[in-house]
């Protein structure tokens, strides 16, 4: 005797936009961006590839949705309005964005070039621009500072994840750089080799972020 639930037994979970995005992020973490195809995603979801186009007309649309999901909660790093020094609040937002991108394999590659108008992405942008406007920056200055901070953070994280990508080990690249500098006539690079070959990417990031904030302080003055 069959039960009333038996007709649905063994069927895949119903396809939805949220489930599709989460499965895509899981595949990204598992195999990286280059291996993420619409066909492989459809297979993981147990559907025909054409079913995905109900939600995403192109793979780029999918990547934009994935980027939007990645940065959920990043805007909260700014803290409440009027909550502390503006430069530290901007720094917290930049750090939170980097952390969100590092949380997923090839996260920065996914995020770069997408232009989401979703609440997570726009919330981050609004928070950063808002912090600067409250601090006395003009509207144009705040907007350009948003681009500068975001582009620096994404670009840095792109290089960081590329250096640490499985199969492209950063230490190998560092060793090659060391050998090339030592074998050649590059006295200034030789003197700076410990920093140049360091894999302390947080230290690299914080140095660049400090330069950006110092520049913004000059603009504000």
TrEMBL record:
Gene3D superfamilies: Homeodomain-like, Tetracycline Repressor, domain 2. Residues 14-74 form the HTH tetR-type domain. Residues 37-56 bind DNA. Keywords: DNA-binding, Repressor, Transcription, Transcription regulation. The keyword Ubl conjugation does not apply. InterPro entries: DNA-bd_HTH_TetR-type_CS, Homeodomain-like_sf, HTH-type_TetR-like_transc_reg, HTH_TetR, Repressor_TetR_C, Tet_transcr_reg_TetR, Tet_transcr_reg_TetR-rel_C_sf. This is TetR/AcrR family transcriptional regulator.
């Amino acid at each position: 005797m069959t039960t009333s639930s038996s007709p649905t037994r063994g069927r895949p979970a119903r396809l939805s936009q949220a489930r599709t995005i989460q499965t895509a992020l899981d595949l990204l973490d598992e195999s990286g961006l280059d291996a993420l195809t619409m066909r492989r995603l459809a297979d993981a979801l147990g559907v025909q590839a054409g079913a995905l186009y109900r939600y995403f007309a192109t793979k780029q649309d999918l990547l934009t949705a994935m980027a939007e999901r990645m940065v959920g909660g990043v805007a909260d790093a700014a803290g409440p309005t009027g909550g502390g020094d503006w430069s530290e609040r901007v720094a917290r937002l930049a750090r939170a964005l980097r952390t969100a991108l590092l949380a997923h394999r090839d996260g920065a590659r996914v995020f770069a070039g997408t232009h989401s108008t979703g609440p997570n992405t726009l919330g981050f942008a609004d928070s950063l621009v808002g912090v600067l406007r409250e601090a006395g920056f003009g509207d144009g200055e705040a907007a350009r500072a948003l681009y500068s901070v975001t582009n620096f953070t994404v670009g840095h994280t792109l290089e960081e994840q590329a250096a640490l990508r499985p199969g492209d080990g950063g230490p190998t690249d560092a060793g090659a750089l060391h050998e090339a500098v030592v074998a050649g006539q590059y006295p200034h690079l030789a003197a700076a080799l410990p920093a140049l070959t360091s894999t302390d990417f947080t230290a690299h990031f914080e140095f660049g972020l400090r330069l950006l904030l110092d520049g913004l302080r000059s603009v504000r003055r």
